Amino acid sequence: MAILFVILIVLACVFLSFVILVQNPKGGGLAGNVAGFSNQFMGVKQTTDVLEKSTWVLAIAVALLSLFSAFFVHSSAAVQVRDTKVNATSAPVNNQPAPVTSPK
After folding, report:
1. Low-confidence ranges of the chain (pLDDT < 70)
2. Domains of the chain: which residue ranges?
3. Measured between alpha carbons, how far is 59 from 53 in angstroms, rounded to an integer?
């Protein structure tokens, strides 16, 4: 389950990086005039709003996935530690040397 969260977080980070790199703080990225379409790109009006909303959604998704994965990783690690302790106590090993008796 933890691997699924890691994959989802990495994908969300890649998309978030792409969306941030597409934006230009001066309005010259995809949000600006692309080939004279004047704030219209592939039929989407006000690309700046779409890119800003997608940035927020992806950032929130990364944060929530990170929090949820912490719960799942923590619980699976606790189970492994508990199982290790059970296995260690279920088969005790006597590592003490045998007592030495003096000949009489």
Report:
1. 25-45, 74-94, 98, 104
2. 27-74
3. 10
